[in-house]
Amino acid sequence: MSVSTTNPTATEHEESSDLIVSKSIPLTTRSGFEFHVRPVAPSDEEALAAFFDHVTKDDLRFRFLSPIPEVGKEMLSYLINVDHDHKEDFLALDIDDKTIIASAMIGANEDKSVAEVAIVVRRDYKNRGMSWTFLEYVVDEARRSGIKKLQSIESRENYAAIELEREMGFTAKSYPGDATLMLLEFDLTSSNPDA
To answer: What is the pTM of this model?
Structure first.
């Protein structure tokens, strides 16, 4: 399944939360679970903090590649203050359009030849097939924005994420200089990445 949409502009994000909700993109997993996706907005800080309160300690460690007890104000500010061009944080929301159930950050270099992607899912929304559908959406949006290659840096202990990314077409290799990490890459310029 390929999802192709146009993201709301930054101006639209700032106008009202009703407009943001109306611009969320509905997605459905292979198992039939429906959720919505949209870019982060500055008004999401409180909801994003609540989201991270429902992420397991292991998943926080996998997402930020270090053991952190909680996501503080500084990190929340980093996640919501994006330029929607080289840096984007996509939010997956339950169908109420209020409850954040996953976050996917993309950060690209200046010429967009490479971007890093990192996803984290709320613990009580796991095992519904949404990680695949959400990552597929993010890959399509990265390609649409002109990014040439996506990279994901994963702890070797994060078996589920590594397996998911490999199934989607990412190639995996050891991360240079750190034997505890894996580097997964996805060439977005290929017309058929699974070939």
So the answer is: 0.83
User: What counts of helices (H) and strands (E) characterise the chain?
Assistant: 7, 8
Q: Determine the straight-line distance between the first and last CA of the chain, rounded to whole angstroms.
A: 16
Residue with tokens 């200089």: 177
- In order of their start, the domains of the chain are 10-147 (3.40.630.30)
pLDDT at 20: 37
Q: Is the distance from CB of 130 to CB of 102 less than 8 angstroms? A: yes
**CA 114-115-120 angle, 5° bins:** 155
Nearest partner of 78 among 112, 113, 49, judged by Cα? 49
Q: Which residues, including other chains, have CB under 8 Å from residue 30's CB and lie 6 or more apart?
A: 129, 132, 133
